TrEMBL record, chain A:
<dbReference type="InterPro" id="IPR009014">
    <property type="entry name" value="Transketo_C/PFOR_II"/>
</dbReference>
<dbReference type="InterPro" id="IPR029061">
    <property type="entry name" value="THDP-binding"/>
</dbReference>
<feature type="domain" description="Transketolase-like pyrimidine-binding">
    <location>
        <begin position="5"/>
        <end position="192"/>
    </location>
</feature>
<dbReference type="GO" id="GO:0004739">
    <property type="term" value="F:pyruvate dehydrogenase (acetyl-transferring) activity"/>
</dbReference>
<keyword id="KW-0560">Oxidoreductase</keyword>
<keyword id="KW-0670">Pyruvate</keyword>
<protein>
    <submittedName>
        <fullName>Pyruvate dehydrogenase E1 component beta subunit</fullName>
        <ecNumber>1.2.4.1</ecNumber>
    </submittedName>
</protein>
<dbReference type="InterPro" id="IPR033248">
    <property type="entry name" value="Transketolase_C"/>
</dbReference>
<dbReference type="Pfam" id="PF02780">
    <property type="entry name" value="Transketolase_C"/>
</dbReference>
From TrEMBL, chain B:
<dbReference type="InterPro" id="IPR001017">
    <property type="entry name" value="DH_E1"/>
</dbReference>
<feature type="domain" description="Dehydrogenase E1 component">
    <location>
        <begin position="23"/>
        <end position="319"/>
    </location>
</feature>
<dbReference type="Pfam" id="PF00676">
    <property type="entry name" value="E1_dh"/>
</dbReference>
<protein>
    <submittedName>
        <fullName>Pyruvate dehydrogenase E1 component alpha subunit</fullName>
        <ecNumber>1.2.4.1</ecNumber>
    </submittedName>
</protein>
<dbReference type="GO" id="GO:0004739">
    <property type="term" value="F:pyruvate dehydrogenase (acetyl-transferring) activity"/>
</dbReference>
<keyword id="KW-0670">Pyruvate</keyword>
<keyword id="KW-0786">Thiamine pyrophosphate</keyword>
<dbReference type="InterPro" id="IPR050642">
    <property type="entry name" value="PDH_E1_Alpha_Subunit"/>
</dbReference>
<dbReference type="InterPro" id="IPR029061">
    <property type="entry name" value="THDP-binding"/>
</dbReference>
Length: 344, 331
């Protein structure tokens, strides 16, 4: 059975499912309940986060388990790490992933390291929910897609759901996973509707989804760039080229096998990633494929990414900044050569 | 500033006095041994010794059970011992051996034993403060009467995490005791230079929680103040900042030339204001322990430390496969 709901509602549903299933699950972050100690907000009407994603959860579970924190990311993130290490399963919301600068130590040096540094004797079942993504005219400090930073760090798992169904299943997997997991919520997807399974279900990490089959080109789209890839694939189909579109769903672990098998079939790879290009997920996937499937490549691997610059504010500039189907087509053209592309 | 009273010693049980003395001796002899072995070049990496500050770790941990949690610092050996970590496992960890408490993968700066409530020494100054409130939050959410103790240095009091953590512990009335080991130095810089505040415990007033400054070389002063703080925390009466004025007998790290220290002050502190000597004198004067009992503990600890060294030297290094194990619970 499935039900239609938005990406945002899928998150809300997943959190509720988890909190009903296990009383050790708590939700903690800035205004996740929304308006602590404001009398008229105790029972209803509380914010539920800046985008209202967790709205209503405090009404069901109370303020002992839905905890508004001061605006002090290092403090509450560190608390969440240790709460996880001492018996709770916290879901900590980092309002925007851009704020990681205020609590990177807690994630990078504490959460990610405990299990290893302590010889496997401690575990940190922490889920960090955080908002990423450009396209909202939110400018350079509220629009980044920083999943590569976390993918770089051993001990962390990184999840980049592109649709409501995946969001719910992957978030539930994250919450009941015994390692620290960071789930990226693209703010431009919150209102996107889709079919979501009812009740409790999980989607395993490290299993990419092939969104579209094809034999001429593999396109890996990260997060919402799956949709840019799909649009490009439609346009390529009109020109006689069938692209296979892959949504990796998690960057750590990464389903290398599905990507490599696809490239072995198509001989061409484009990675679409709205993050900065240097030391990025796109660059990482390109390196892995270059290393493990070089002999199968008919053309250089192309990355369609943001330029190496901060996210601009002006809508006119931000549009140019983002990957687009046109940029994917242009990249493909360089891979197949003008003659082939234009004669179709 | 409060000092321990003679009455307090008379109220202490012999068993408690023996436990306290043994733990202080374990820390002192363990650290002195590590100092000597490090000088010989047999210990890898960075080592920060706790000698001189024993009364703080022991005076506080004397009130804790294995279910209570502590967070620690880069200078964590003393906290580990006071919280009940195994000396063999600790020494082997410092030696980088497979039999170490963390299988040789953590080392001196990351010794942990979660089963003892020891959430790890920590290589990042100020990191333990938010971690301690997390353990306090777990106790609150699970409605246990456990407490969390955060040991931190005067250097960390200048870190943002101190203020974030104390504020959150205060607004949520968490069962956390913030124990500042004010040894007068953050690395090489003095407390007077690096901190604008006169006393770390002064922040208690700002955050509207309990606060106290005690002579951290006086076991009984620490023990009594910590007892009150732990008691308050267990009753749900919220956090405390307990500042313990102490002295770091060795340098910031082993190999530190300590040129920034006043030699006269150091010699006087070690000769006249040593926490172990002061405790010995107090328990003898109050007839809590006899010379014979003290000597027996001294030699018992000497054997235990010698055993830990031998155990470590005899232990194998970790298998190369351990390089990539324990990164994830599952991946």
């Amino acid at each position: 059975m499935s039900v239609k709901m938005s990406y945002s509602e899928a998150i809300n549903d997943a959190v509720r499912q988890a909190m009903r299933k296990d009383e050790n699950v708590i939700l903690i972050g800035e205004d996740v309940a929304g308006g602590a100690e404001v009398d008229h907000l105790q029972d209803q009407g509380a914010w539920g986060g800046v985008f209202g994603v967790t709205k209503g959860i405090v009404e069901e579970f109370g303020r002992d388990r839905v905890i508004d924190t001061p605006i002090a990311e290092a403090g509450y993130m560190g608390a969440a790490v240790s709460a996880a290490a001492t018996g709770l399963r916290p879901i900590a919301e980092l309002m925007f992933n851009d704020f990681i600068g205020s609590c990177l130590d807690e994630v990078m040096n504490q959460a990610a390291k405990f299990h290893y540094m302590f010889g496997g004797k401690a575990k940190v079942p922490l889920t960090i929910r955080t908002i990423d993504g450009a396209g909202f005219n939110a400018a350079a400090q509220h629009s980044q897609s920083l999943y590569a930073i976390f993918t770089h760090i051993p001990g962390l798992k990184v999840v980049v759901p592109s649709n409501p169904y995946d969001m719910k299943g992957l978030l539930l997997q994250a919450i009941f996973d015994d390692d620290p997991v960071i789930v990226f919520e693209d703010k431009t997807l919150y209102s996107m509707k889709g079919e979501v399974g009812e009740g409790f279900y999980t989607i395993p990490f490290g299993k990419a989804e092939i969104k579209r089959k094809g034999s001429d080109l593999t396109i890996v789209g990260i997060g919402k760039q799956v949709f840019t890839a799909m649009k490009a694939a439609d346009q390529l189909a009109k020109k006689g080229f069938e692209a296979e579109v892959i949504d990796p769903r998690t960057l750590s672990p990464l389903d290398e096998g599905t990507i490599i098998e696809s490239v072995k079939k198509t001989g061409r790879l484009i990675i679409v990633d709205e993050a900065y290009p240097r030391c990025s997920a796109a660059t990482d996937i390109a390196a892995i494929v270059g290393d493990k499937a070089f002999d199968y490549l008919d053309a250089p691997i192309k990355r369609v990414t943001a330029p190496h610059s901060p996210v601009p504010f002006s809508p006119a500039l931000e549009k140019i900044y983002m990957p687009s189907p046109e940029k994917i087509l242009a990249a493909f053209q360089t891979m197949v050569g003008d003659r082939v592309f234009t004669t179709v | 500033m409060q000092a321990g009273t003679e009455t307090s010693y008379k109220e202490m049980t012999v068993d408690k006095a023996k436990w306290i003395y043994q733990k202080m001796q374990e820390i002192r002899q363990f650290e002195n041994a590590v100092h000597e072995i490090f000088e010989k070049g047999e210990i890898p990496g960075f080592v920060h010794l706790y000698a001189g500050e024993e009364a703080v770790a022991v005076g506080v941990c004397a009130h804790l059970t294995d279910d209570d949690k502590i967070t620690s610092t880069h200078r964590g050996h003393g906290h580990c011992i006071a919280k009940g970590c195994d000396l063999d496992g600790m020494m082997a960890e410092i030696f980088g051996r497979a039999t170490g408490l963390c299988k040789g993968k953590g080392g001196s700066m990351h010794i942990a034993d979660v089963s003892k409530g020891m959430l790890g020494a920590n290589g990042i100054v100020g990191a333990g403060l938010p971690l301690a409130i997390g353990a306090g939050l777990t106790a609150k959410v699970k409605k246990t009467d456990n407490v969390a103790v955060c040991f931190f240095g005067d250097g960390a009091s200048n870190h943002g995490t101190f203020h974030e953590a104390v504020n959150m512990a205060a607004i949520w009335k968490l069962p956390v005791i913030f124990v500042c080991e004010n040894n007068g130095f953050g690395e090489a810089s003095t407390f007077d230079y690096a901190a604008a505040a006169d006393r770390i415990s002064d922040f208690a007033k700002v955050y509207k929680i309990a606060g106290d400054t005690v002579d951290g070389r006086d076991l009984m002063a620490v023990y009594e103040a910590a007892g009150k703080a732990v008691d308050r925390a267990r009753k749900g009466e919220g956090p405390t900042i307990l500042e313990c004025l102490t002295y770091r007998d060795y340098g910031h790290f082993e190999g530190d030339t300590q040129t920034y220290k006043d030699k006269e002050v150091q010699e006087k502190a070690i000769a006249e204001d040593d926490c172990i000597l002061r405790f010995q004198n107090a328990v003898k004067n109050t007839k809590l322990l006899t010379d014979e009992e003290i000597s027996a503990i001294d030699s018992q600890v000497q054997d235990a430390v010698a055993h830990a060294i031998q155990f470590s030297e005899d232990s194998p290094f970790p298998d190369r496969s351990e390089t990539t194990t324990d990164v994830y619970v599952s991946y």
